[in-house]
Amino acid sequence: MAPPPRMLQGPYSSLDRDRLLIRLPFKSFAVGTVLLPVTGFIACIFISLLYHYEDATYTHCKVSNYLPSISSAISRVPERYIWRGCIGLHSAPRYLVAFAYFSFYRSRFANRLLELLLSGLALLCSLAENTGLVMLTYVSSTETYSVHKYGFITFIGSSLVHMLITCRLWYVIKRHYVSPEEVTSYRWKLRLFLFNISCCVIAAYFFRRHNKYCEAGIYSLFAAFEYLVVFSNMAFHMTAFWDFGSKEVTVATPPEDKRY
């Protein structure tokens, strides 16, 4: 009797179903994620100064200004599309990292209720920060100013709260789980948080002073400290380089269920 015909093989054999598709060191993942907004931001500032200088540095009271604000630098073409593309690619990994941190904190603080609650709040702040960044990116100040403004406020507010909570959690980690990488990570987080909040205060001062007195060059100082706020925020997130240095990001096909 002839053997039964064999089934045609699909794109994956039974052995292929458990195959690892992608393996990426978390350090490379973190660097690539942060380089997207860094590259896009620098490109937008450079193009604005080179090709749209008069428009990008224009102020409502028409005083001398030498640097565009971030909102101005990302609101024109092609800057708008460069920034949106970089942030669009950047946002998905940021959401993934937020949940990775939450899982990390839950394992570290399994028996510490306060830190578990702070971990959940840190997750919410991280999600709000990323969502605010996406909102202010895809709705420019020249399109719908109110939406752009609220996106900016959400981004800045949740960013500062997230950094504060993160420093508190890593202070506890440093005290109870000492390793060179964790100590280094905590110290840089604290420095960058203090630097970031200082730049926020100084930028707010120059913004208020510009709107009140319209002095030449003051808006440029506001823009410069606004840049530092953004760069220090990016650097703070780059500390994941130490937090997950030995980990890998993997994508694999799910194991085939052998039960019938």
From TrEMBL:
It comes from the Eukaryota. One of its GO terms (biological process) is GPI anchor biosynthetic process. It is found in: Golgi apparatus membrane. Residues 26-246 form the CWH43-like N-terminal domain. Its main location: Golgi. The keyword Chaperone does not apply. It is a multi-pass membrane protein. One of its GO terms (cellular component) is endoplasmic reticulum membrane. The chain crosses the membrane at residues 29-53, 116-138, 150-171, 192-210, 216-236. Keywords: Golgi apparatus, GPI-anchor biosynthesis, Membrane, Transmembrane, Transmembrane helix. The keyword Plastid does not apply. Belongs to the PGAP2 family. Involved in the fatty acid remodeling steps of GPI-anchor maturation where the unsaturated acyl chain at sn-2 of inositol phosphate is replaced by a saturated stearoyl chain. May catalyze the second step of the fatty acid remodeling, by reacylating a lyso-GPI intermediate at sn-2 of inositol phosphate by a saturated chain. The fatty acid remodeling steps is critical for the integration of GPI-APs into lipid rafts. This is Acyltransferase PGAP2. It comes from Oreochromis niloticus. The gene is PGAP2.
